[in-house]
Amino acid sequence: MHRYSDIAAGAVDILAVDGRSLAGNLLGEPTGRRVAVWRPRGHDGRGLPLLVVLAGYTGSGLGMAGWRAFGESLPERLDRLTTDAQLPPVVVAMPDAFTRLGGNQYVNSAAMGRWEDYLILDMLPVVERTYGCGGPGRRGVMGKSSGGFGAIQHALRRADVWSAAACHSGDMGFDWVYLPEMPGALRVLARHGGSIETFLAAMATHEAPDGDDISCLMTLGMCATYDPDAASPYGIRLPVETETCELIAERWANWLAWDPVRIVEAGPGPWVDNLKALKALYIDCGTRDQFNILYGCRRFVRALNGQGVAHRYEEFPGTHSNVGFRMDISLPAMAAALSGED
After folding, report:
1. Cα 218 from Cα 323, distance rounded (Å)
2. 199 Ramachandran zone, left/alpha/beta (phi>0; psi -120 to 50)
3. Residue 259 and residue 231: Cα distance in Å, rounded?
């Protein structure tokens, strides 16, 4: 139910997707997934651009589509922007990519699964075939936090698929984002005998995990994404010594290879052409982001400026939390660029 009675509600469908690209993941995640799809009221979606919105860690596309107290779900936000004529007609897909490690970074990983391939090879064809939307030059990817990281990674490498990208507080500047989390993760694991398997078994039945548990789970998710090891339980290995929390240089180097900041600061490469091919690139971050992502964003944008990559960057007075209102800016900008109204 909308907070406002004069909003024209669009339609939300739940599609089943056979995620064959996810087969063989070391977490044992199911390959059958679902995606929520919104389309404007009175429109079947045919001929419209497609936006794919990636949820942040501990989130899901199905959660974004659900009702929220004292706020808006993503479909409600889309309804309001459409009713107010701020958002050009567009189809919006919200994939469920939740895992037993609490979320996803939307890239290929032997442990987590081949999520980049899932989005592109499995999900996109189902959505575009069902609604007759999207297609080359008409697809955009966006998200917040881990979803923002996923959007940036796809933009850096897959301009053959995506033509616009938006990153809200996306993970970057790994030294300041992830390393501060390592001591806390070790303390949580110590309560479980230092065993990742025991911790995950406890989390599977825990009805009220606390903030430390969730932070540890997220750290393990990053381990499984950036430096998976088939010989370790669930493919997870830490980049630090468990006794002293000293950094293991070889392990950490594998993490840094995924850091958007390190990728662009390394100098010209295919990423330059990929980003320059986009019709729109939007980035923002709160000036009080508690995960220190602001500093990575500033370095990232400085590198974009150095290579002449067109983009829109904004900082706003806020933290990493409750930043959905920023989509009032990015959604219309993305839809307009993909519609040719830019």
Report:
1. 20
2. alpha
3. 24
> In 3D, which of 316, 276, 275, 280 has the Cα closest to residue 297?
316
Cβ proximity of 294 and 286 under 8 Å = yes
Inter-axis angle of helices 182-190 and 196-205, to 10 degrees?
A: 80
pLDDT at 20 over 80: yes
Sheet order of strands, 50-54 included: 11-18, 32-39, 91-95, 50-54, 139-144, 164-168, 280-286, 312-316
Pairing type for strands 91-95 and 32-39 reads antiparallel
Residues 173-199: tens digit of each pLDDT:
999 999 999 999 999 999 999 999 999
Q: Look-up: residue for tokens 């004292």?
A: 70
Tell me which H or E stretch contains 146.
Answer: helix 146-157
Sign of CA dihedral 123, 126, 132, 136: positive
Q: If pLDDT is split at 50, 70 and 90, which confidence band does 340 have?
A: confident
φ/ψ of residue 293, rounded to 5:
-70, -25
* Of 338, 341, 332, the residue nearest 82 (C-alpha): 332
Three-state DSSP state, 261: helix
Domain coordinates of the chain in residue numbers? 11-172+260-339, 176-256
Q: What token pair was written down for 9? A: 């509600």
pLDDT at 2: 54
Q: Are strands 108-109 and 113-114 parallel, antiparallel or unpaired?
A: antiparallel
Alpha helices, DSSP H only, in 182-231?
182-190, 196-205, 211-226
- Rounded to the nearest angstrom, the gap between the alpha carbon of residue 189 and the centroid of all alpha carbons in its chain is 26
What whole-number distance in Å separates Cα of residue 138 and Cα of residue 338? 5
Neighbours of 125 (CB within 10 A): 12
CATH of 11-172+260-339, one of 3.40.50.1820, 1.20.140.10, 3.30.1330.60, 1.10.3720.10: 3.40.50.1820
Residues 6+ apart with CB under 8 A from 74: 38, 53, 64, 65, 92, 94, 324, 327
Contact 259, 174 (CB under 8 A): yes
